[in-house]
Specification:
The complex is a heterotetramer. By secondary structure, chain A is of the alpha+beta class. Chain A contains seven helices and four strands, in the order H-H-H-H-E-H-H-E-E-E-H. Chain A folds into two domains: 60 residues; 78 residues, Glutaredoxin. In chain A, strand 3 and strand 4 form a beta hairpin. The longest helix of chain A is centred in the N-terminal third of the chain and has 13 residues. Chain A is elongated, with a radius of gyration of 18 Å. Chain A starts with 9 loop residues before the first helix and ends with a helix. By secondary structure, chain C is α+β, with helices and mostly antiparallel strands. A four-stranded mixed sheet of chain C has the order 2-1-3-4, with helices on one face. Chain D is an alpha/beta fold. Helix content of chain D is 38%, strand content 16%. The mean pLDDT of chain D is 90. Classes of the chains: A alpha+beta, B alpha/beta, C alpha+beta, D alpha/beta. Chains in contact: A-B, A-C, A-D, B-D, C-D. Chains A and B meet through helix 1, helix 3 and helix 4 of A and strand 10 of B. Strand 5 of chain C pairs parallel with strand 7 of chain D, so a sheet runs across the interface.
């Protein structure tokens, strides 16, 4: 898992401590804590995991083991406009693979990567349950249905100045 | 106990309810091959993740094959351990494991002593299909001062993870990633050196492949021994002599002190010394420190903290430096015997034989991997030159003896050289859990009470229980002693101290099961405590056979103080024989 | 305090809600306003049901139509999202599919105001257990 | 404004349209106009009736007549007879094949209603964010009934007798599972709702939680009452934000209304629910992995026994049930086990919710009685194959299931028949595939999924499935050999035989079932180096037909890798060694000069 070096500010550490406290510093709640923390910071760099481990009094190796186990957790920041291509079965048989490769080609990044300007990142997800609209692409919170490779450029253009 | 009867390969077996098929088969004399499974019997750790699936067997009426290591038997169960279906499955699984494993057995440090290799031989895998299109999981090799992690060779048996987390509670290792790329690693795949690893070596001791091995210094040693400008001297730790024989087929518990000394001499060491000597020295310093703290405490000095903790185990030192930084002031400041030996060897002894410090190479033979790290610590260097140049493990020594074609069995028993080879029984028992504190009491009692010890053997301090405690009567003063071996047990004691739950005066802690006799550098005991017990008996046998059994009566120790050090805790002693500890805990740094 | 302390209180609540809202295909007595349910599950929202619902609420208000609009879960017709169900007084509920803003306008104007069916009806193809 | 007395609803479903329903609509409209009935009758097109084999279908309102197999030529007769003379056109009426009776009034006839909604009873019916609407639909009556008039044992007995089996996959008898937890002694017990719906292409549980969260809450409370647990946990996918939001609201409301909390219905029964989030790991659908995940660890499965009912969450007895299973529970309590067990087949009772997706016209969420055939689901409820393509296969049970084919269309959908056919019920994903889908590619797709989702704990799943996937990739690249098939079969069966959990044990199913049902497609890839469906890129060759090429250079400009060369006005050539098969040239060519070979 690739990662970047970050420096935490005191207020960031306080935020993490507060999150852990809201789950009673209970190690059973590690995954909920990580969810909340990722929500607050956008990703889970090593430094944040160190704080979480300390607050919940568990080994940081364990925290890292959990972070790398679940695909939802990321150690690199996502783009400002995270693009998620659904590769669930319904989307796959309706051509999600072609849509995905079009995004990769257009943005010149691979799945799990972020464009150098930090604008876009691509990830795959398995079924958001909108199979009726397959293939489905999400950009941030917005869902695009029945996406064809031809639509990819237009979708990207919508976010170009963001 | 409720018993159940089952048949295994048409043999009827009766076993207690809850027994696994593997153990039931064993009872019936049927050996089922296992790979990830590890039974550390007396340590109360039975590692059976059911991960490798080599041990699968056929159970009638069951849809799929059952992992025998983790499937419980039931009444009337019918098990077949070697059907064609089973053999095909085992062979296929073995082939799968090998398809994701380097095939550099010829130069692998584990070759010849590798569970995976043995299993491959047993399974008769002769071909790995489609290897040309098979992706192989690869990881960066991690070189630390003591342990090398080559995770390309990891088969995910997870034994190391169990030792590191459940037994030692160090928490340096965890399974990471998922699926094909899953592997055991420190957090963020950082180097072990940067992690909380204590180098106890228990992971290395249980690793079935070449994934975790010790840093091998035998090549360096051969080069040094062949360099005429260098004077190479050696010290051997107490626990080595009680286990080295196992590597040559001798039964566990065979003492090979004399043969070992002879072998070392034949290997070309100029002087063959004994760490037991510096163990006696340790007692002088640590004992004095204990008495000093104790006396001040009894006088009401509030700045003194008790209990005093032993500090001769380097893994234990690493442990409290990383995980209990708030308690750095309670362990004894006395250096470990290995380091005391080095400090004296490169000053007192170097002067005696008129060899310059940097021409003198001090090598230690240790049952331990953390010792490899300990001698690299900056505190133990003078102008960059280490007091102990490097440490090799019992296993490496055995290998070297074999390599040099020395017939170990026919070697005569030889003595250690003087002066740093003379020791007392107190020095010997450092090798077993409880031994350091017993040695300390033998000396402290006499110094404190000015009376002769009514008895020398303190059975109440010996044994294999993870945490033990005893009260020793110091002529009216009841001295509360705590003993722990295994860092998991040490953690419990430390947490009790932190919360003020116990009131020990002195505590001995050893990181490995059984103390140094179960060290990470010893011939593999596979968790079999009977082997550890045999080694322990050997240690106490050697103690009992010694004419002098109290450290302060060692004539060469007395001479060392007279000629060189002055008295325990003198200025010179402080400089050469004591150390300080550093806070190695991860600090949360923010801006 | 909303707590339901016993079965009688539960049953009272049930009757109270039922008197206001229709939950069956059976035609009941008049007196209830037009009732509109908009499917608002993930796939509906992804297809624009939120826009449809907002439009309907605003437009009914603007056009002075007395109606209740509520959200509901997945109606099952993913292929025809957004879907809405319209129940006119004294009529069977009718389900419409592909209800974008334009369609919604048509439904309000023709069906809700005048009872004229428009294209895009989805026949209910399942049995309900309370009928 | 016209005041239509009669509405003619013409099915505009894809299947009916293909049998000329569009022309029929026009004919009807013309006829009505011709007969001057413009203000009296109106033709409206509708979505699919789910009665496709009898299409095109017309329903006439208000008298509920249904005409089947109506041809455009029948328009005049229908208008003249039915509307003007108010006489039914008998020959077009539906004849019940069982009784041979002609159905004149379609009301209550419901022949085309193949679905029964039990688990989905409130979905699309009530406002999921209103506990009051749930109560209005008999909500919390079952909890009240169980708490006030039934013992836990009696309640379990009802569930047992109903024959309800777990809807999450394996189909274990729900009542039995509850009983096991009840019988285990423990100071504390837990009930868990498994809402970690991970099958790609399945969204039944999400729909239930989004549409009717209270039914799950009520069932969990009943589950807690029966097993002796006062704590419930919902383990839900973090990818379902709407479901989470509605569930949270519902839990809050249930507390407000006293349906959760202390002394529920003044009976002294305490029960509350908290939520734990999944984080994107399919394997966490497996109960032991789910429990480890809830404990804050890696979601790795462990050996059973011990079963969660004995040693589960925090080492306590734990009863795990799937969302859909739970959604059935209140109805069973309310309507009785006899009612429930009257639906379905001998060994599979009740209904099953499926997410019908893929190349089918009516993609959607359906709930059908057990025992219905695949044909009915695909061709009636599903409205047939999209774009009139040829049906090729149906994947049931997601990555754990199997791919069934034409010859299985009349297999009844129930736990046992599906297993016999080589698939499994699974959680309810149903993906329809047509002639454009390559079955080797589909197998590869599912393997890619399981390789990605394998936890890595056991060898056969960690390495074995990876190797299976590599073999499939090799075949789709045209490098496969006949021995690879043998190898696939052996490897697949060993993986099934030796993997630790259901994920690994069932991962080879898509390979084995496609090998079984579509072996010739593998052979074509291996021997002819061709992909009949035109999916496997490496077996495709883009070529320029010299006769059609005008040398416009459009293709060469479109090619992202510069694989096309040629001077203006001269025939262009594609360098196969450079071509990445993106298809850009083909899209750009206006002269049909680029073809796939």
């Amino acid at each position: 898992m690739s990662r970047i070096k970050v420096e935490l500010k005191k207020k960031d550490v306080d935020t993490i401590k507060e999150i852990c406290r809201s789950f009673n510093n209970n190690p059973d709640e590690l995954i909920n804590v990580l969810h909340t923390t990722q929500h607050a910071f956008g990703y889970l760099p090593a430094e944040i995991q160190e704080v979480v481990a300390r607050e919940l009094r568990i080994a940081v190796a364990k925290v890292y083991g959990v972070v790398t186990f679940y695909s939802f957790f990321s150690m690199v920041p996502k783009g400002r406009n995270p693009i998620s291509v659904c590769t669930g079965t319904a989307c796959y048989v309706r051509g999600a693979e072609n849509v995905l490769s079009e995004f990769r080609k257009e943005l010149n990044i691979d799945v799990g990567e972020t464009t150098p300007d930090g604008r876009f990142s691509i990830s795959c997800l398995r079924c958001i349950g909108a199979c009726g609209l397959a293939p489905v692409v999400m950009v941030g919170e917005k869902t695009y249905g029945r996406v064809s490779p031809e639509m990819v450029r237009d979708i990207i253009r919508e976010y170009e100045d963001q | 106990m409720e018993m159940v009867t089952l048949t295994i390969d048409d043999k009827a077996v009766e076993v207690p309810k809850g027994t696994t098929i593997y153990k039931a088969a064993k009872k019936a004399g049927i050996e089922i091959p296992v790979l990830c499974y590890m039974d550390l019997g007396d340590l109360n750790i039975e590692h059976k993740p059911g991960g490798c699936r080599i041990c699968v067997v056929e159970v009638e009426g069951r849809r799929n094959l059952a992992p025998s290591c983790s499937t419980e038997v039931y009444e009337g169960m019918q098990v077949h351990t070697h059907t064609i279906r089973v053999l095909n499955a085992r062979q296929t699984i073995m082939e799968l494991l090998l398809s994701d494993h380097p095939k550099d057995c010829l130069i692998c440090p584990k070759s010849g002593n590798c569970d995976l290799q043995n299993m491959a031989i047993k399974m008769g895998v002769r071909e790995i299909h489609n290897q040309d299109i098979a992706e192989v999981s690869t990881y960066r090799t991690d070189f630390s001062p003591a342990i090398i992690r080559d995770m390309n060779k990891c088969i995910m048996c997870r034994r190391c993870e169990t030792m590191c987390n459940e037994f030692q509670t160090v928490g340096a290792l965890s399974a990471i990633n998922r699926g094909f790329m899953s592997v055991v690693a420190p957090a963020f795949e950082m180097d072990l050196e940067d992690s909380v690893c204590t180098y106890c070596g228990q992971c290395v001791a249980v690793c079935p492949t070449g994934a975790l091995t010790e840093v091998d210094h035998t090549h360096r040693l051969i080069r040094d021994l062949s360099n005429p400008s260098k004077t190479v001297i050696v010290q051997t730790a107490p626990a080595v002599r009680a286990a080295l024989g196992e590597a040559f087929g001798l039964p566990p518990g065979t003492l090979v002190t004399g043969k070992m000394a002879a072998a070392l001499r034949r290997l070309g060491f100029k002087y063959v010394f004994d760490t037991d000597f510096s163990a006696d020295l340790t007692i002088m310093e640590e004992g004095a420190e204990l008495l000093d703290r104790l006396t001040r405490h009894l006088k009401g000095d509030k700045t003194v903290r008790l209990p005093i903790l032993t500090s001769c185990c380097p893994s234990w030192v690493n442990f409290f430096e990383a995980q209990f930084p708030d308690m750095l002031d309670i362990p004894s400041t006395a250096r470990s015997p290995q380091q005391m030996f080095g400090a004296i060897a490169k000053t007192y002894f170097a002067d005696k034989i008129k060899v310059k410090r940097d021409h003198l190479v001090v090598v230690s033979i240790m049952p331990c991997l953390a010792k490899k790290y300990e001698c690299t610590r900056d505190e133990f260097k003078v102008d960059g030159n280490p007091d102990v140049d490097y440490s090799i493990s019992t296993r490496e020594l055995a290998h070297l003896i074999k390599q040099a074609n020395i017939d170990f069995h026919t070697l005569p028993d030889e003595e250690f050289d003087l002066p740093l080879g003379e020791s007392t029984g107190a020095g010997v028992i450092f090798g077993a859990t409880g031994g350091v504190i017993e040695a300390a009491i033998r000396t402290a009692y006499e110094l404190y009470t000015n009376k002769k010890l009514p008895r020398i053997d303190f059975q109440e301090l010996r044994g294999m229980d993870g945490i033990r405690e005893a009260v020793i009567d110091f002529d009216g003063l009841p001295l509360n002693i705590g003993i722990a071996h295994g860092l998991g047990n040490a953690r419990k004691l430390l947490e009790d101290i932190r919360s003020g739950k116990n009131s020990y005066h002195a505590i001995e802690i050893m990181a490995c099961p059984g103390g140094c006799i179960g060290g990470g550098g010893q011939p593999l005991h596979h968790g079999n405590f009977s082997i550890l017990k045999k080694r322990m008996e050997a240690i106490y046998r050697e103690d009992a056979a010694k004419s002098i059994r109290k450290s302060h009566e060692n004539p060469y120790i007395i001479k060392l103080y007279e000629e060189f050090l002055g008295k325990p805790m003198s200025e010179k002693s402080h400089k050469l024989l004591h150390t300080h500890y550093v806070d190695k805990s991860k600090k949360i740094i923010y801006i | 305090m909303n707590k339901l302390r016993n079965l009688a209180e539960l049953s009272n609540l049930k009757e109270r809600v039922r008197s206001k809202t229709r939950f069956t295909d059976k035609i009941k007595d008049s007196g209830q306003p037009v009732q509109i349910r908009v499917a608002m599950a993930t796939c509906s929202i992804a297809s624009g049901s939120r826009e449809t619902m907002n439009y309907i609420v605003d437009e009914l208000d603007k056009r002075n139509v007395d109606a209740t609009v509520t959200q509901t879960g997945c109606m099952g017709y993913c292929y025809a999202e957004p879907t809405i169900e319209v129940t006119l007084p004294d009529q069977e509920p009718v389900l419409f599919g592909y209800v974008d803003v334009k369609k919604a306008d048509e439904i309000i104007e023709k069906y809700i105001k005048s009872g004229i069916l428009v294209d895009g009806i989805i026949p209910v193809n399942y049995k309900r257990i309370d009928e | 404004m016209a005041d239509f007395k009669i509405h003619l609803l013409v099915c505009g479903g894809t299947k009916c349209r293909s049998s000329l329903s569009t022309i029929l609509t026009e004919q009807l409209r013309t006829e009505i106009k011709n007969q001057g009935l413009d203000d009296y009758a109106q033709v409206v097109t509708t979505g699919c009736f789910g009665f496709c084999e009898k299409g095109p279908v017309i329903k006439i309102i208000p008298d509920h007549t249904i005409y089947t197999k109506v041809k455009p030529d029948d328009a005049e007769e229908i208008v003249t007879e039915h509307i003007v003379k108010v006489r039914k056109v008998n020959r077009l009426l539906y004849k019940d094949p069982k009784t041979d009776k002609i159905i004149t009034d379609a009301r209550g006839m419901e022949i085309y209603k193949k679905q029964i909604r039990i688990a989905l009873r409130n979905c699309g019916m009530i406002d999921p964010e209103s506990i009051e609407e749930y109560v209005a639909r008999d909500g919390y009556a079952a909890l009240g009934k169980a708490l006030t008039s039934m013992t836990p044992e009696e309640t379990i007995q009802v569930i047992k007798l109903s024959g309800l089996r777990g809807r999450g996959g394996a189909g274990f008898l729900t009542g039995l599972k509850w009983e096991l937890t009840r019988q285990t002694h423990g100071d504390e017990k837990y009930v868990v709702c498994n809402a970690d719906e991970g099958d790609p292409g399945a969204f039944m549980d999400r729909s239930i939680l989004e549409g009717d969260p209270h039914s799950v809450i009520e069932a969990m409370a009943i589950n807690g009452y029966c097993t002796g647990a006062s704590q419930g946990l919902v383990y839900i996918r973090a990818e379902y934000p709407l479901a989470i939001e509605r569930l949270k609201k519902a839990i809050q409301q249930a507390r407000e209304y006293g349906m959760l909390g202390e002394d529920i219905f003044s009976t002294g029964f305490n029960f509350d629910i908290s939520i734990r989030y999944g984080a994107g790991a399919f394997v966490c659908g497996e109960e032991t992995a789910l429990i480890h995940s809830m404990e804050g660890g890696r979601g790795e499965p462990t050996m059973k026994p011990p079963f969660p009912s004995v040693k589960g969450y925090l080492g306590k007895p734990t009863n795990v049930n799937n969302v859909e299973t739970l959604a059935n529970v209140p109805v069973i309590i309310n309507k009785g086990h006899e009612w429930f067990s009257s639906i379905g087949t001998e060994r599979s009772k009740g209904t099953k919710v499926f997410a019908l997706a893929g190349k089918v016209n009516n993609v959607g969420l359906i709930e059908v009685p057990m025992g219905i055939t695949l044909r009915e689901v695909i061709f009636e409820i599903g409205g047939g194959i999209k774009n009139d393509k040829k049906f090729k296969g149906i994947q049931i049970g997601g990555p754990s299931g199997g791919c069934l084919t034409e010859k299985h269309l009349d297999v009844p959908i129930d736990y046992d028949s599906l297993v016999d056919a080589g698939a499994m019920m699974g959680s309810g994903g149903m993906i329809i595939m047509d002639e454009d889908d390559c079955m080797v590619d589909v197998a590869k797709y599912f393997l890619d999924f399981t390789v990605d989702e394998s936890c890595g704990k056991c060898t056969p799943c960690r390495i074995g499935n990876k190797r299976l996937h590599e073999l499939l990739v090799n075949i789709t690249k045209g490098n496969g050999t006949e021995e690879d098939i043998e190898r696939l079969i052996n490897l697949a069966s060993v993986i099934k035989d030796t993997s630790l959990c259901m994920l690994g044990q069932s991962a080879p199913n898509p390979v084995l079932s496609t090998l079984e049902n579509f072996r010739e497609e593998y052979h074509t890839h291996i021997h002819d180096k061709k992909c009949p469906a035109g999916v496997c890129k490496d077996l495709m060759k883009y070529e320029i037909v010299p006769e059609n090429c005008v040398g416009c250079t459009a293709c060469a400009r479109a090619c992202p890798v510069g694989a096309i060369t040629g001077e203006r006005k001269e025939i262009h050539i594609i360098d196969q060694s450079l071509c990445i098969k993106c298809g850009a040239c083909m899209d750009r060519c206006k002269f049909n000069a680029v073809i796939i070979n």
